[in-house]
Amino acid sequence: MQWTEVSVMTSSEAVEAVSNILMEYGATGVSIEDAKDFEHITKGRYGSHGEIIDPTTVPHLTSGAIVSAYYPESNHIADKVAELSEKVTHLRAFGLNPAPAEVKSSPVKNEDWQTSWEKYYHPFSVSRYLTVVPSWTDYQPKSSLEQIIRLDPGMAFGTGTHPTTQLSLQALEMTLRGGESMIDVGTGSGVLSIAAKLMGAGDVAAYDVDEIAVASAKKNMALNPVAKSISVAANDLLKGIHRQVDLVVANILAEIIVPLIPQAFENLKPGGHLLMSGIISDKYSLVADTLIRHHFQITETLKMGDWYGVIAQKPKEEAS
């Protein structure tokens, strides 16, 4: 089968948003080359036969990122490049800098896109106790405390390399004590739900508006036995969801967090926590003001580069 590759040259901060755009156009797979990925790789054994790989000898980006998506020829995606370019450029309205925001298309053989990203994606530690491992890698924990999250990044995003995902994982480690019920909004690859179960969360439900993301999350849940009880479904934020949980987690853009905040308040138990990430620096005040307006108390603010994570708590006794 003939495929068309669409590549977007962008910034590291816009990787997940660009991935979302490409998936919305019907991509059957996404690969990401991000200069930040190599910040996590050290010289060591990565190959299937124990080869030693020195990252300095592997060609890679030194800045920014390239997000590539793959479409069957029946999609006629080449005719939509100008439209895609406009959507990528419009990310500036959401506080993201997608520069250089260059979009191009080219034909590619079926077998090429399936393996093009494997050489760039290796096991890496996303926190003191959590390591994300590609599904095809035979990786053994280095200590009894190390927890493994196995992911297939081929059709998902949120594999742990982006600061917004790392901030979410930090917030989970700070908040979870064991047994909590949780809702993961905009689950993407499912990495946060899987991590929460490894940290001792109880009942976990994951939602995403994108059916492709839901399918990818289910696939990743199946790779991690601890996640077999997680329910995954398509839903627009928390519309129509009425349940009381201990935690709501959302790693999404600030403009999408804002309408989620009152929905989260309704679905949290008194004293429950809302964990948010995906907030670019100039949108922090928008989120903070919305939280306060809806009676949340901001208990922690985390920062990594230009990105913020926020932990907010619903009062133990609701305001009258």
Kindly list the characteristics that best describe this protein:
2 domains; 4-stranded antiparallel β-sheet; 320 residues; 7-stranded mixed β-sheet; Rossmann fold; Alpha-Beta Plaits
CATH superfamily membership of the largest domain, which one? Vaccinia Virus protein VP39
CATH architecture of the largest domain: 3-Layer(aba) Sandwich
Which class best fits the helix and strand makeup?
alpha/beta
Total number of β-strand segments?
A: 16
Q: Low-confidence segments, ≥5 residues, pLDDT <50?
A: 45-53
C-alpha termini separation: 62 Å
Percentage of residues in helical conformation = 25-40%
Give the helices and strands as they follow along the chain.
Answer: EHEEEEHEHEEEHEHEHEEHEHEE
Query: Looking at the structure, what is the overall shape?
Result: globular
How would you describe what is shown here?
It is a single chain. The chain has eight helices and 16 strands. The model is unreliable at 45-53 (pLDDT under 50). It folds into two domains: 2-119, Alpha-Beta Plaits (2-Layer Sandwich), CATH 3.30.70.120; 150-313, Vaccinia Virus protein VP39 (Rossmann fold, 3-Layer(aba) Sandwich), CATH 3.40.50. It is an alpha/beta fold. The strands form four sheets. It has a seven-stranded mixed sheet, sandwiched between helices. Strands 2-5-1-6 form a four-stranded antiparallel sheet. Strands 7-8-9 form a three-stranded mixed sheet. A hairpin with a 6-residue loop joins strand 3 (44-45) and strand 4 (52-53). Belongs to the methyltransferase superfamily. PrmA family. S-adenosyl-L-methionine binds at residues 165, 186, 208, 251. Pfam families: PrmA. Its EC number is 2.1.1.-.
